[in-house]
Specification:
Strand order of the largest sheet: 1-2-3-4-5
Helix content: 40-55%
Radius of gyration: 27 Å
Distance between the termini: 75 Å
Low-confidence stretches: 20-25
Largest sheet: 5 strands, mixed
Structural class: alpha+beta
Number of helices: 20
Order of helices and strands: HHHHHHHHHEHHEEHEHEHHHHEHEHH
Strand content: 5-15%
Mean pLDDT: 89
């Protein structure tokens, strides 16, 4: 109710401002990128609350009407014309150099702030402005594509969004069958790991007693989940996704559940890229589940390995013999996983290779190759198990030859594991995973001796 009241209040202020603007012939405003820049100048001119809110809404409305070229021109104008006030900044620098003080440092900080940051703050005052700015940044990210000319603008937008979407503002809500339909539709649409085929499929994932789904929401975007996680409650750590999603599976009595399995985590807003909510979400969901089900003692993921096969196909320095490379060619055979002999041969090569991928392989910048691995290991999880043929979906076979992994969140070790990864790049892994790497070494030794 408080959110609805606040939204109605803003809308009323904005509408009164629109009335004032109409009296001032604002209908003559050019509805192109140049006209939009002029409106932005007007918004920064220090008008009253009502007219300022109305101008902000007008800017966002006109932006929606622009095509891709117009939007890029608008972004370029913000970079070119809405940087810091250089004269003010120069004076602040000279004052600081002459006699540094805390007050002068503060003045220098505020003088160096680009005008576009204040512009973005004022745009955020418009009704629905926060969501529009998130969508605007999604457009911006799509246009950057490796180019640096818009990087300064992106830094300013992401800086403000990081403040507005910090953990203190986020609200955790459980998603179940009583959740409003418009939100459930978005869960279906945004699911990025294991596609939800229809409403029946969604109900199987959120309605049974042994299933949970949680999402973070922001007060300014009450009907838009920002990120959500799907959870299966099981007796033991699973090694394959199909049994968890099976249409005819038997529901587990809740008193027998000992393991919480995070099997899908989906970010929903491209415009919030680079602003991480996932670690907060997992940790808070763990706390929620522990309060509800004190007998749960294991918290683990069942995760895809989206970068594995791309690495196998592109990396020329793989620890493989010529014989191993011949075996890998059998991945091109249709339904290779249905042949026990072929699957066994490929397993002997791919499992040690997967261990090498996680424990040894790095990008040119020294980072782990796999984005999912970086996320969970950075959050303090342990690489617990590599699961052969864990995902036989077309996507799973294409991206990872069916390989899935479990990351274990042992609460007493999270901080220690995080520090090891963040400070030293160490991947904390179970002995079972390390043994796979040793078997790779033995195979290479045998190859050299032969």
């Amino acid at each position: 109710m408080a959110n609805a009241f606040f939204s109605d209040l803003l809308a009323t202020i904005s509408e009164r401002g629109r009335t004032l603007l109409r009296r001032g012939d604002s209908a003559d405003t050019r509805r192109d990128a140049d006209g939009l820049i002029e409106l932005c100048d007007a918004l920064l001119s220090g008008r009253g609350e009502a007219s300022g809110t109305a101008i902000a809404r007008e800017v966002l409305d006109i932006y929606r009407e622009l095509d891709a070229a117009g939007r890029r021109s608008f972004f370029e104008g913000l970079v070119r014309d809405f940087g810091p006030d250089r004269e003010r900044l120069s004076k602040a620098i000279e004052k600081w150099r002459a006699k540094p003080s805390d007050e002068d440092a503060s003045s220098l900080h505020f003088a160096s702030e680009p005008r576009r940051q204040e512009l973005i703050r004022r745009l955020n005052r418009a009704p629905g402005g926060t969501g529009d700015l998130v969508n605007m940044r999604a457009d911006l990210l799509g246009m950057m594509n490796g180019h640096t000319d818009l990087a300064a603008l992106d830094r300013d937008v992401s800086h403000l969004l990081s403040s507005w979407f910090n953990r203190g503002f986020l609200v955790l809500r459980r998603i179940d069958w009583s959740t409003p339909a418009n939100i459930l539709e978005k869960i279906i649409r945004y699911e990025a790991v294991h596609e939800i085929s229809d409403w029946d499929d969604l109900r199987r994932r959120i309605d049974p007693v042994d299933r949970r789904c949680y999402a973070f929401f922001h007060p300014a975007m009450v009907d838009e989940p920002l990120i959500f996680v799907e959870v299966a409650l099981t007796e033991t750590i699973p090694g394959a996704i199909a049994p968890l999603l099976a249409v005819d599976r038997k529901h587990l009595p809740i008193e027998r559940a000992r393991t919480a399995v995070f099997y899908s985590i989906s970010n929903t807003q491209r415009g919030l890229g680079g602003i991480s909510f996932g670690s907060f979400l997992i940790k808070q969901v763990v706390e929620e589940l522990r309060r509800e089900l004190p007998k749960l003692d294991t918290f683990v993921t069942l995760s895809p390995v989206p970068g594995f096969m791309a690495w196998v196909k592109q990396d020329k320095d793989l620890p493989l013999s010529d014989e191993d490379r011949e075996v890998l060619k059998r991945l091109d055979e249709p339904k290779w996983f249905e042949s026990p002999e072929t699957a066994a041969l490929l397993r002997s090569v791919l499992e040690p290779l997967a261990a090498h991928y996680f424990l040894k392989a790095r990008t040119s910048k020294g980072r782990l190759i796999d984005s999912v691995a970086r996320f969970h290991l950075g959050n303090g999880a342990r690489l617990e198990r590599i699961n052969w043929l864990g995902d036989l979906s077309p996507k799973g076979l294409r991206e990872s030859a069916g390989v899935m992994v479990n990351y274990l969140y042992r609460l007493d070790d999270i901080e220690k594991n995080h520090e090891a990864y963040a400070n030293d790049g160490e991947v904390v892994a179970s002995s079972a995973v390390k043994k796979l790497l040793k078997s790779e070494g033995r195979r290479l030794l045998d190859m050299r001796l032969s």
